[in-house]
Amino acid sequence: MNFEVKIAALFKCTLDSAFKTPMLVDVAKVHTGYGLMPKITHCTEDQHWGQIGATKKVFAAPSWTQKGGYVSTDQVLERVENEYWKIRVFDFQSWMLGFYEFEGIWKTSQVQKECIQIDYTYTLRAKGLMLLP
Predict the structure, then answer these.
(1) In this model, does residue 14 exceed pLDDT 50?
(2) Which of these, 75, 93, 77, 90, lies nearest to 125 by C-alpha position?
(3) How far is Cα 100 from Cα 80, in angstroms, rounded to an integer?
(4) Which residues are 119's β-sheet partners?
(5) In terms of Cα–Cα distance, which of 59, 56, 64 is closest to 40?
(6) Distance (Å, rounded) from C-alpha 106 to C-alpha 8?
(7) Which residues, other chains included, contact 9 with Cβ-Cβ below 8 Å and sequence gap of 6+?
């Protein structure tokens, strides 16, 4: 069973920045803990992150939903420079409302000079009954 969400937004920046920053940024600066999502503390085995096929192990602080430590693996599935990324998050170490995998596609397109449209689609995959908050 799949659950898909699509989000689109415009940003005032260069195409290169809109393409690279979200995927190459330190994820601990973005995922600071909110609701069911734990605070990400760091990643390991990420020396090739950003290259197709590369993975990284993600670690989180303890929270009411997770014991902390290693929580999942991220992988770059596809990358077309300044066009799109396709990533997946898998190997969850705790119960994630029945979800076993997350796939995200981040598309960038230049609308005008320093005006970039981002189309983000993420798909959560679940086996059996899905329990959504």
Answers:
(1) yes
(2) 90
(3) 26
(4) 8, 107
(5) 59
(6) 10
(7) 117, 118
Contact 28, 40 (CB under 8 A): yes
Query: What's the per-residue H, E or C state across 6-45?
Result: EEEEEECCCHHHHHHHHHHCCHHHCCEEECCEEEEEEEEC
CA dist 111 to 9, 29, 115, 118, Å? Answer: 11, 28, 6, 10
- Nearby residues of 61 by Cβ (< 8 Å), 6 or more positions away: 33, 38, 39, 40, 41, 68
In the prediction, which pLDDT does 103 show?
97
Q: Give the residue-averaged pLDDT of 19-46.
A: 91
Task: State the pLDDT at residue 118.
Answer: 97
pTM above 0.85, yes or no: yes
Strand partners, 44: 57
Burial status of residue 35 (CB atoms within 10 A of its CB: 0-12, 13-18, 19 or more): exposed
DSSP conformation class of 123 = E
